[in-house]
Amino acid sequence: MLKYYKLEADHIVLAEDEDSSDIIMMSIPTSEQRSVLLKEYEIPEHTITSAFDNDELSRIEYDDDFMAIVFKKPKNYSAEDNFQFSVESFGIFIFEDWILLLTSSEFPLLDRRRFSKINSLNTLVLKLLNYSIFHFNEHLNIINRINNELEEKLKSAMENKHLLSMFSLNKGLIYYTSALNSNGILLTKLQLGRSLKFTETERELLDDILIENKQSQQQAEIYVNVLASMMDARASVINNNVNSLMKTLNVVTIALMGPTFIASVFGMNVTFPFTLGESNPSSFWIIIIISVLAMLISVVSVIIFMFFWESRR
Q1: Which of 44, 79, 120, 126 shows its CA 20 to 30 Å from the CA of 196?
Q2: What is the pLDDT of residues 29-57, one digit of tens each?
Q3: CATH value of 2-240 in 2.30.30.40, 3.40.50.2000, 3.30.460.20, 3.40.50.10540
């Protein structure tokens, strides 16, 4: 998808065509659009590919006509991802008087809350980088809430489904930590270098973005360490829940042994003493009472045994 924007009164607005635009945003370009990037804009094929390569590290490239920035941001999450968070790359190509933005998912450039007070293309570049860090912070908060919900479910769980979801969260956090570290290196290069002529206000914004990125990286590292250190403990919770269930099943099995034995004995095709048999109409109820008493004795005996066993421990 191809969209045109321009700067107007310190805000981004839609433009009618390429000639009247300052910003071109291209989402997943077609083969024809790629041909335009290669021939008209003279962007190398490997640089275009880097802008959509999720494994590409954040970096800066210089060309005769433009400067390219490849940056990392979180991939939009959906329920189908099953708690698997991942990252993606996007490219900012800074020409003399306009910017080309290559991205897999569109940026909300018309959002006045996130993209406001933009009086130059350099400020726009910083706002795009800042939005990426903001997106990371949002996802980290969501991951923390999901982790807390999974912990509550694990307290009574007896299957590995929730534990596997935590493994997916931990994997996504590792991707986030790597991406934030890569972004931090690029931001430091922008801060120390002279590739873009920033104003004093823009340099202050860049310093704030670098601080936000460091804080996000530290937060992601903390979540990774907490998830990794508690994974064995959470697996033990599931084992304990299964053991508790097995204890209950054992009590039920032992309780049924008495009635089963009595039913087996009186089910034999022999003559029974104490006038128990077909000639005695009360035989059925006598056998039922004996079975119930045997079951109660078995249950009480098991409970008493377990009580004293736990007391000794």
Answers
A1: 44
A2: 888 888 888 888 888 888 889 899 988 89
A3: 3.30.460.20
